[in-house]
Structures are given as structure tokens and as C-alpha cells.
Design goal:
The complex is a heterodimer of chains A (363) and B (256). Chain A has 9 helices and 21 strands. With 363 residues, chain A is of the alpha+beta class. Chain A has 2 domains: 2-233, P-loop containing nucleotide triphosphate hydrolases (Rossmann fold), CATH 3.40.50.300; 240-357, no CATH class. Chain B is an all-alpha fold and 256 residues long. Chain B has one domain: MetI-like (MetI-like fold). Chain B is 79% helix and 0% strand. Chain B has 11 helices and no strands. In chain B, α3 (54-88) packs antiparallel against α8, α6 (128-153) crosses α8 (169-198) and α8 (169-198) packs antiparallel against α11 (228-255). The longest helix of chain B is centred in the N-terminal third of the chain and has 35 residues, at 54-88. Classes of the chains: A alpha+beta (363), B mainly alpha (256). Chain A binds chain B through residues 53-55, 74-76, 80-82, 84, 86, 88-92, 101-102, 105-106, 149-150, 153, and chain B through 155, 157-158, 160-168, 171, 175-176, 179-180.
């Protein structure tokens, strides 16, 4: 990667009255990369892109774009554009004037401006809507206008601050695909902010997980999801259980937690080689058509566990358990079928390869 | 549960208090009788008399010049002040905002005395110039308040978006900020013009012996008794005010 570094952040620090927001972050981004800054609100991700855009000045550190130090340049002198969270369209201009504002500033002729605006409207699939008032647009359309307004300037880097946050789920999915399509088509570097791990995993070439003003881990979606380095990343990205045992900390994603006894024999993703079925305990599961299972794990851990609560969320059944030492563990699976009831004792476990050792940062 | 009658009564009282005197004034401007309290039949003669009254027209001209000058100058100063207070973010800005609104709170008679003292001290010749300075200074707060409120309600990100798209500070002001606050400036202009056009107390203190404004003229004439001619003038002024307010409302509807 060292040979095609496009944008570099070097030791960026920034404090506001409320405290230190960025505590010295470093990041190298390649030309044409789609990188996502993922983190909970208040982790410093918006401040990071505001510093790249020039809207905030860092207290320390440099911003390097294509080898040139742009740290002290005002926002209008940087070839970087931003999509703001609330779109920030100009309310007194129509759609076409909004889109071509950047060209007007650069004194591009009116005819050329109009032609370019049409081209952009086609790119964001709003053909023929140039004369509309901004207030007449839906949220998704406003979003597209904001994208067109930024892309018309052919920026080297496009900064997107939770651009889909205000849209409903269906529209969000659709816009995710469209953004990805445009990014590939134009080859522009995208720096994308979100607090939604699914969105980050779906769209990014790389994800930088931010927490309290620092990067916890930077890597591909696969690395972040399957090989989290810290307990925060494991929990935030994979919704993993954090298990502390013998002075070590492990992350176990909920779909890999296998219920070994007294549960209906339904497929668990975490099951598979190494988990074998043994004699059934018929009397423990009365009045059910599905035979109860009794499994053992060859290479892994098993625990006695008490069922605390069952809930259904995001197309998944979640069952929360309490281990003997008081730690809580969540198992999840698709489908509603479960015969366990709250308060019941059972056994749960996971294969050794599903317990990823992580650095414990207290989460 | 029965609906309370109170709102209806309240509304009737307010309407009566506000509109009855106005309607009476307008009706009596068409009174043929010279005695205000006696109805002597319909006549336009007072309007004819009014339009022949050179003295009154000179006063009207003075009032218009004064009103336009004061509200335009105060619009520029008030707008720049409000934008400056928003932009700079200095600690002293709260204090600046506070004293910028102060002239509205201070009794007019006190303001009039203050201006009189200051202009005398500085050796100004009393007349149109002193009137314009005094009126400008009491009009600034209206513009300042209107524009400040609008700026507070404005999305700060649209100015950042313009800078992000390549606009420098001057371009941001003229392309983005100014169009956003224009309705507030216009409302402020109307209000200050009305305030200036209506003012007697301060004007009496700061005008010279040669320059009369319309309100001063009316006030002076009232000392010798209300003539139906003044009723006619009042009726015209009410009509003009209503037209201006109506246009302002149309404009604001169009922009919301």
C-alpha cells in the first residue's frame, strides 16, 4: 500500500471545550479506496472528516493529500467534498442550481454548467428534476442531490457523514448499492462515516473502528468481523459475547454459541465438525414434536447455564444465558423454534476456533 | 361539557377597542360638518382641502425622506451587526446583543433628551441630519433583532457546505447568507419605517425650527382642535399601512 497512498492523517489531535476528541490518529488511505470510519456517536469520526474537509483545524498533526500538506488550507482550497448528515442543500436554490454551485464558483459558463448538472442528475437518477425546489424533494432525493452537488466538482476524496442515517431501511439498502456503484464507476476515494456495522461491512474495502478518539482496529470487513483485535471491536462489529476466563479475554459471536441440552434439535451455524450428538434426554422436553438434543463438543468449552430471557430481534431469536460465575452469554439463531423457558438450567458451549482471544478494553 | 364563552367575549372586546376608533375616524373623514362630533352628511371636501395643504405635504415629504434614509442605513448597520455577532463568537457578543436591543426598552422621552444633549455637545445643526441620525439609531435594534433571530434559525451547515464547494467568505455571504436573511431584513425595514414614520417624541427633541415631520405637524395642529382634515389624513395613512402590511404578508407566504 505504501506506493499508492492518497490521503494520510498523521498524529491528528483535536480538543474542544468538552474535552479531547481525537487523541492522535494515523491513517493511510489508498487511491480509489472505500474506507469506513465506524464507531458509536461521540467517538470522533465526524471531527476526523471535518479536519480532512478543512472545516475544523487540528491542534496537532498533519493532513497529507497526494504528497502535499493541506493541513492549513481553508476548505474552499481543498479538492475534497463533503456530504453532510442533514444534506445541507441551499433552500433558496432549485435542484440544478444546488448541483452546479461549485461550478458557478469556478466561473464555468452557464451552458456548460447546465450540461454538467444534467449529467449529474442522470448519474444519481434524477433526470428532468433540475427545476424542482429543494423543499419538494423526498429525503432520498435530497440525498441524491447532495451527492450530485459534491461529485460535480470531481473531488479527489469524497467525505460522507452518515449520509443514509435519515432514510428508512429499504431506501438505505438501495442507496448503499447505488453509492457503491457510483464509487466504482468514478474511482473516487470515499471516506464514509457510519455507526451501523452492517452498512460498514456491506460497503467498505476497509473499516477503521473508532472508539474514544482512537482507532481500535483498521482492516478489511473480514478481518474486523472474524479476527477482532479488541473486545470493543468484537462487541461493536460482531455483537460478540466477551468471555473472561483464566485471565484471558475471548470474543464469541452469538451465532457460534451452541445449546447442548434440552433444546429442540435445530441447526446451529456454530454446530458442525467436532460437535457430536449423543443419547437423547427425552424426559427433559415434554410435549414437543421436535426431539431434544444432547450434544458434546470435542475441542472447545462447555458450561452449565441458566436461561434468562428469550427475545426476537432482526430476524433472529436471541436467548440470553447466565453462567455459574455470573457472566452473561447470548446465543442467536434464525427462526422462532425454541423449547427452552426462562429459569431452566441447560448446558451451552462453543468450539475453540470460535473463541477469538482479544485485548480487553473493558467492554 | 359546554364550550366557554370567554374566548368569544375576549375577542369582541379586543376588536372593539382596536377597530371602532379607526372605523369612526374613517367615517368622520367624510363628514360634511366642520364640527367633528356632529354628522352633517357625506362629503369629500376634507380630502380636497388636505391635498391643497402645502404645509402638510412638505411635512409628509420630510417624513418620507427621513423614514427611507433611517431604515436603509439602519438595515445595513443592523444586518452587519447581527452577522458579525454570529460569526465572531467573541465573549463580548452577548453584551453587544444586549445593548443593541436596549433603545427599544429605554423610554423615548429619555432617548430624545440624550440625543439632544449629544448633538448640542457636538455642535450639530439641528435639522434633517440630526433627525436621520437619531431615527437610524432607534431603528437599528429592530433590524438587528429580526436578522439575529433568523440567523439563529439558519442551518449552520449550509454555509459550511458552500465553503466546502469552493466558495470564499465573501461568496458565502452573498450567495448563501444574504438570501437566507433577506425576508428578515425586509420585515425589519418595514417595522423600522413604521417606527420612524410614527415618531413624535424623539423628533421633537432633535429637529430644528425649520424642519417638520408629518407626526410633529399633526401634533401641533391638534393643539388647536381636531379638524376633519386630520381625520382624512389619518384615513389615508391607515390605508397605506394596511396595503404595506398586506404586501409583506404576501411576500412572506411566497417564501415559506
Amino acid at each position: 500500500m505504501a506506493d499508492n497512498i492518497h490521503l494520510s492523517l498523521k498524529g491528528i489531535r483535536k480538543s474542544f471545550k468538552s474535552g479531547e476528541v481525537l487523541k492522535g490518529i494515523d491513517l493511510d488511505i489508498a487511491q480509489g479506496e472505500f474506507i469506513t470510519l465506524l464507531g458509536a456517536s461521540g467517538c470522533g469520526k465526524t471531527t476526523t472528516i471535518r479536519i480532512i474537509a478543512g472545516l475544523d483545524m487540528p491542534d496537532e498533526g498533519r493532513v497529507i493529500l497526494d504528497g502535499a500538506d493541506i493541513t492549513d488550507l481553508p476548505p474552499e482550497k481543498r479538492n475534497v467534498n463533503t456530504i453532510f448528515q442533514n444534506y445541507a442543500l441551499f433552500p433558496h436554490m432549485n435542484v440544478a442550481d444546488n448541483i452546479s454551485y461549485g461550478l458557478k464558483i469556478r466561473k464555468v459558463s452557464k451552458a456548460e454548467r447546465r450540461a454538467k448538472a444534467e449529467e449529474m442528475l442522470r448519474l444519481v437518477r434524477l433526470e428532468g428534476r433540475g427545476d424542482r425546489k429543494v423543499s419538494e424533494l423526498s429525503g432520498g432525493q435530497k440525498q441524491r442531490v447532495a451527492i450530485a452537488r459534491a461529485l460535480i466538482n470531481e473531488p479527489k476524496v469524497l467525505l460522507l457523514d452518515e449520509p443514509l442515517g435519515a432514510l428508512d431501511l429499504k431506501l438505505r439498502r438501495q442507496m448503499q448499492l447505488e453509492l457503491k456503484r457510483m464509487q466504482k464507476q468514478l474511482g473516487i476515494t470515499f471516506i464514509y462515516i457510519t455507526h451501523d456495522q452492517e452498512e460498514a461491512i456491506n460497503m467498505s474495502d476497509r473499516i477503521a473502528v473508532m472508539h474514544k478518539g482512537l482507532f481500535e482496529q483498521i482492516g478489511t470487513p473480514d478481518e474486523i468481523y472474524y479476527r477482532p483485535k479488541t473486545s470493543y471491536v468484537a462487541n461493536f462489529v460482531g455483537n460478540a459475547n466477551i468471555i473472561r476466563e483464566n485471565g484471558k479475554t475471548y470474543a464469541v459471536r452469538s451465532e457460534n454459541v451452541v445449546i447442548l441440552e434440552k433444546e429442540a434439535a435445530v441447526h446451529f451455524e456454530g454446530a458442525g465438525p467436532g460437535i457430536t450428538e449423543s443419547a437423547q434426554e427425552a424426559e427433559s422436553v415434554p410435549e414437543t414434536a421436535v426431539p431434544a438434543q444432547k450434544l458434546t463438543i470435542k475441542d472447545g468449552s462447555e458450561y452449565d447455564a441458566k436461561v434468562l430471557e428469550k427475545s426476537f430481534a432482526g430476524g433472529q431469536l436471541r436467548i440470553e444465558f447466565e453462567l455459574k460465575d455470573g457472566q452473561h452469554v447470548v446465543a442467536s439463531r434464525s427462526g422462532l423454534n425454541s423449547v427452552l423457558t426462562a429459569g431452566q438450567m441447560t448446558r451451552i458451549g462453543w468450539r475453540a476456533e470460535h473463541a477469538v482471544e482479544v485485548i480487553d478494553d473493558g467492554i | 361539557m359546554r364550550k366557554s364563552r370567554f374566548p368569544a367575549i375576549y375577542l369582541a372586546v379586543i376588536t372593539a377597542l382596536t377597530f371602532v376608533p379607526i372605523v369612526v375616524t374613517i367615517i368622520y373623514s367624510f363628514n360634511a360638518s366642520k364640527i367633528t362630533s356632529v354628522w352633517g352628511g357625506f362629503s369629500l371636501s376634507w380630502y380636497k382641502e388636505l391635498f391643497r395643504d402645502r404645509d402638510l405635504f412638505r411635512a409628509l415629504k420630510n417624513s418620507l425622506i427621513l423614514g427611507f434614509a433611517a431604515c436603509l442605513i439602519s438595515a445595513v448597520i443592523g444586518t452587519l451587526g447581527a452577522v458579525g455577532v454570529k460569526r465572531t463568537g467573541w465573549k463580548i457578543n452577548d453584551f453587544i446583543s444586549y445593548i443593541s436591543r436596549l433603545p427599544i426598552m429605554i423610554p423615548e422621552i429619555i432617548l430624545g433628551m440624550v440625543y439632544l444633549a449629544v448633538f448640542s455637545f457636538m455642535g450639530f445643526k439641528f435639522g434633517m441630519l440630526t433627525l436621520i441620525i437619531a431615527h437610524t439609531s432607534f431603528c437599528i435594534p429592530y433590524i438587528f433583532m429580526m436578522v439575529s433571530d433568523r440567523l439563529i434559525g439558519m442551518d449552520p451547515q449550509i454555509e459550511e457546505a458552500a465553503r466546502d464547494l469552493g466558495a470564499n467568505a465573501r461568496q458565502v455571504f452573498f450567495d448563501i447568507t444574504l438570501p437566507s436573511i433577506t425576508p428578515a431584513i425586509l420585515s425589519g425595514l418595514l417595522l423600522s419605517f413604521a417606527m420612524s414614520f410614527d415618531d413624535v417624541v424623539i423628533s421633537v427633541f432633535v429637529t430644528g425650527s425649520t424642519v417638520n415631520t408629518l407626526p410633529i405637524k399633526i401634533y401641533t395642529r391638534m393643539k388647536t382642535g381636531v379638524t376633519p382634515e386630520i381625520n382624512a389624513l389619518a384615513a389615508i395613512m391607515i390605508a397605506v399601512t394596511m396595503i404595506i402590511l398586506f404586501l409583506n404578508r404576501l411576500y412572506q407566504r411566497k417564501h415559506d
